[in-house]
Design goal:
4-stranded antiparallel β-sheet, 6-stranded antiparallel β-barrel, alpha+beta, 13 helices, single chain
Length: 498
C-alpha cells in the first residue's frame, strides 16, 4: 500500500483559540504579545490585523501607531500546545496515526483511510470543513511524503491533493522555505538567487552538503521521498483495532448496534484467522461535539465468538449517549491471548468451567455485576470443613477433585454458630434445636459423620456431623464438638443445604 500523508496547517491557531472563547473579537484586529527585554513584541495575529499591515516581530507600540484600536492579549505558548494536542486527539476520527507538528500544524498518516470517504479529495474537504466549522482557519493538503504535504499546505494556493507519484512536479515551483529549512540557510539561498525548489534539484548533493550542510539535502530527499520520514503517533495504535467512519452522524441505538456488529464481525474474523481470542475490548464512539463515548467488556477466557461478544456489548449499549451524532466507531481489543479450538470427547461432555456455556454465563454475569463479584473455589486436601477449599482463578487447573461420596452444604458458615440442641441418647440425631431465638423441630436426620482434625496441624476434639430437616423443609448441617459422655460438648450450626 502506497503511503499517503496529510498536513493540516492552522493559519492563526493562537488567536483562533482566543476568538472561540470571546466571539466579539472575531471582526476586530487581534494580536498576542510576549515581553522581550522590557518591550512587548507581537508573536501572533489574526487575519484582520495582518490585512492592516501588522507582522509578527513588530513591537506593540509600533503596531498601535498603525492601528490605534488594536486588541492585544498575552500569548500563552503552553496553553496553545495543549490545544494542538487536543486537536490531534480529535483528528483520530480520520486516521489512527496522528501527531502534532508544532507550533501550528498536525501530520496524519492517511494510508488506506481516504477510500472510506470515497476519494482523497472528499477526505481532505471533510477534514477542512469540520475544522473550519469548529472555528479554526486551516489549509489541508495530501501527498506521498510528509515534506510534500507540509509544503503544499503552506505555500500552494491552488493545490490540495497531489496525485500519487506527482509530488515532484508539485514541489518544483514552490519557494525554498517549503523544505522546512533554517532561516539562515534560506537567506543564503536567496543571496545566491535560489528562490525555488526546482533551482536546486539538479545541483549535485555533495555540492549542496559542502555549501549548506547536511540538513538541506536531507530535507530535499525527505520531500521527494528518497529518504523515508516517519511520525510518532500521539496515541499508540492498538494492534487489534477496527474502525468504521460514518458518512452521516449516527444518532439512533439501532444505527450504533449495526456499527458494533460490523466491527465485531471484522475483528473476530481476524482473530479466528490468527487463532487468537480477546480478553478485554473497548467500543468507542467519537461524537460530533468532540466527546468520546465508550463501553468495555471483559471475558473470563479468550473468545472470538461473534454472537457471545455481541451479547456482552449489548448489555451496556444503552449507556452510549450519541447527542448530536457519532461520526466514527472504533473497536479495540486491548488484551488478546492464544485461542485454540478445544478438543471435545465423544461421549462425556465438558463440565464445570471447561463447558463453554458456563464460561459465557460467567461473562454475562460479570458484564452486569462486575468480574469481582464472581468467585471460584477449588478443593483442598484437608478434612476440617473450613480448610477443605480454597479460592482460585476461574480457569486454573484443579490438582484434586471434589469428594463426590460426601454430601456437603452449598452455604458453609465461615465460623460455626453455637446452638442449643435436645438429643435423647448419645450418638442419636437431635430432636430439635434453637437458633437465633427460633426453635426448629427436626423431622428427618442422618448421621453421625465423624470428622477429626489433621494431627499434624492441630490437636483438639473431633466433630460428629448430622444432616437434619425441620418441619418447614429447611435443611441444616449440625455437629457436636466432643464426646457426649464428656459433658463438655457443644452443638453448632455449620451450613445450609438448598
Amino acid at each position: 500500500m502506497a503511503k499517503r500523508f496529510v498536513s493540516i496547517y492552522f493559519h492563526h491557531l493562537p488567536t483562533d483559540w482566543f476568538t472561540l472563547r470571546q466571539p466579539e473579537l472575531k471582526n476586530l484586529p487581534l494580536v498576542l504579545t510576549e515581553s522581550n527585554h522590557g518591550k512587548l513584541i507581537i508573536t501572533a495575529s489574526n487575519s484582520n490585523a495582518e490585512k492592516k499591515g501588522i507582522r509578527i516581530g513588530t513591537s506593540l507600540a509600533d503596531a498601535r501607531a498603525i492601528i490605534p484600536d488594536l486588541i492585544a492579549l498575552e500569548h500563552k505558548p503552553l496553553l496553545i500546545n495543549r490545544v494542538l494536542n487536543r486537536l490531534a486527539d480529535w483528528c483520530i476520527r480520520f486516521t489512527p496515526t496522528v501527531t502534532t507538528d508544532p507550533p501550528n500544524g498536525l501530520i496524519l498518516d492517511a494510508s488506506g483511510c481516504s477510500h472510506l470517504w470515497g476519494s482523497d479529495t472528499i477526505y481532505i474537504e471533510t477534514i477542512s470543513m469540520k475544522l473550519t466549522t469548529r472555528g479554526y482557519g486551516v489549509r489541508v493538503a495530501m501527498a506521498d511524503t510528509i515534506g510534500a504535504a507540509w509544503a503544499i499546505a503552506r505555500f500552494s494556493s491552488d493545490i490540495r491533493v497531489i496525485p500519487e507519484g506527482k509530488h515532484l512536479e508539485a514541489l518544483m515551483p514552490l519557494p525554498t522555505q517549503a523544505l522546512r529549512l533554517e532561516p539562515e540557510v534560506i537567506e543564503r539561498l536567496y543571496k545566491l538567487g535560489l528562490h525555488q525548489i526546482q533551482q536546486i534539484l539538479n545541483i549535485p548533493r555533495p555540492s549542496l552538503r559542502k555549501r549548506f550542510g547536511q540538513h538541506l539535502p536531507q530535507q530535499l530527499d525527505k520531500a521527494l521521498g528518497n529518504e523515508m520520514e516517519w511520525i510518532e503517533p500521539l496515541q499508540q495504535v492498538e494492534p487489534y483495532q477496527e474502525r468504521l467512519p460514518s458518512i452521516e452522524p449516527i444518532v439512533t441505538e439501532t444505527g450504533i448496534r449495526i456499527a458494533l456488529h460490523q466491527l465485531i464481525d471484522l475483528l473476530c474474523t481476524r482473530l479466528q484467522q490468527e487463532q487468537k481470542g480477546l480478553r478485554t475490548a473497548t467500543f468507542k464512539g467519537y461524537r460530533v461535539d468532540g466527546k468520546v463515548e465508550h463501553i468495555e467488556i471483559v471475558t473470563s477466557r479468550p473468545s472470538n465468538n461473534v454472537k457471545h461478544l455481541s451479547k456482552l456489548f449489548e448489555l451496556k449499549l444503552s449507556t452510549i449517549e450519541p447527542a448530536w451524532g457519532i461520526e466514527l466507531f472504533v473497536l479495540e481489543a486491548g488484551r488478546v491471548e492464544d485461542h485454540h479450538a478445544q478438543q471435545e470427547t465423544m461421549w462425556a461432555p465438558p463440565t464445570g468451567v471447561e463447558d463453554q456455556r458456563i464460561t459465557e454465563l460467567v461473562d454475562k454475569i460479570a458484564g452486569k455485576m462486575g468480574m469481582n463479584t464472581i468467585h471460584r473455589y477449588a478443593p483442598a486436601e484437608h478434612h476440617w470443613p473450613e480448610r477443605s477449599f480454597t479460592g482460585t482463578s476461574l480457569h486454573e487447573k484443579l490438582l484434586t477433585t471434589w469428594p463426590e461420596h460426601k454430601l456437603r452444604p452449598l452455604q458453609l458458615l465461615s465460623t460455626p454458630q453455637r446452638i442449643e440442641v435436645t438429643a435423647p441418647i448419645p450418638d442419636y440425631p437431635p430432636m430439635l434445636f434453637r437458633h437465633q431465638g427460633k426453635i426448629h423441630t427436626i423431622i428427618k436426620a442422618d448421621g453421625p459423620e465423624r470428622i477429626e482434625q489433621e494431627w499434624w496441624l492441630q490437636q483438639g476434639q473431633h466433630r460428629d456431623y448430622y444432616y437434619v430437616e425441620d418441619e418447614s423443609g429447611n435443611r441444616y448441617w449440625l455437629f457436636r464438638l466432643g464426646h457426649y459422655q464428656d459433658k463438655m460438648y457443644h452443638w453448632y450450626l455449620h451450613g445450609f443445604f438448598p
